[in-house]
Amino acid sequence: MTPEDRTIVKEEAPDVQLRLTEDRAFVFWRRYLLVMTAVFALQGVSWMAFGSFDPFGIYSRLMARALLDAPVLTPEADAVFSFAVVPLGATTAGFFVLVHFLVRFGFARRERWSYDAVVAGVLVWFALDSTISVHHGAWFNVGLVNVPCLVVLGVPLWFLRRHFVADVGPGVPADRARSFPRGGGSAGTPATTTRRP
């Protein structure tokens, strides 16, 4: 290696280290989202199985106080609630299965559309659910469910935002369209190029 080559390597080293650090962060937050979306999907199934949001009845009691001004739900209200969580649990499970696959495949290729789809879905859910909850005086639902869920999903999405290219297609440089192999890869793994015809 000539002295000139050694100088070039030294100059490029900080940039390489920065890319490796960013790749490690990408892998970490993507894997975190894969785990949490799987957990939320299983949580939706558990609602269907148990007919309740939690095994301790905390949500039911808070709902009774907020909506019925009673310490607990009446037997009739409890029966209706047990049924209502079934379609809600199925919808929740389906939503997070969809998000899981977007994170697994779209995020792996760093395709911006997949990131925008997940962010839009989460924000629309939070805005609608929280607005209607507040309208009905169910502030407990916003504080107990919506805000924690938004934090759990929002933090990794915030840190991942800069890792996605605006578009993946003709005219996009190959080094900007890099992605990890299927399964998430690891820092330092050779990048692949994704292009659309």
Low-confidence sequence ranges: 7-12, 169-197
Strand content: under 5%
Largest sheet: 2 strands, antiparallel
| Rounded Rg | 22 Å
| Order of helical and strand elements | HHHHHEE
Query: How many helix segments?
Result: 5
Strand order of the largest sheet: 1-2
Distance between the termini: 39 Å
Mean pLDDT: 82
| Quaternary structure of the protein | single chain
Helix content: 55-70%
The strand count comes to 2
Which word captures the global form? elongated
The structure class reads mainly alpha
Observed structural traits:
single chain, 197 residues, mainly alpha, two-stranded antiparallel ribbon, 5 helices, disordered C terminus
Word description of this protein:
With 197 residues, this protein is an all-alpha fold. The chain is 70% helix and 2% strand. It has a two-stranded antiparallel sheet with strand order 1-2. The protein is elongated and about 60 Å long.
How would you concisely characterize the structure shown here?
The chain has 197 residues and is mainly α. The protein is 70% helix and 2% strand.
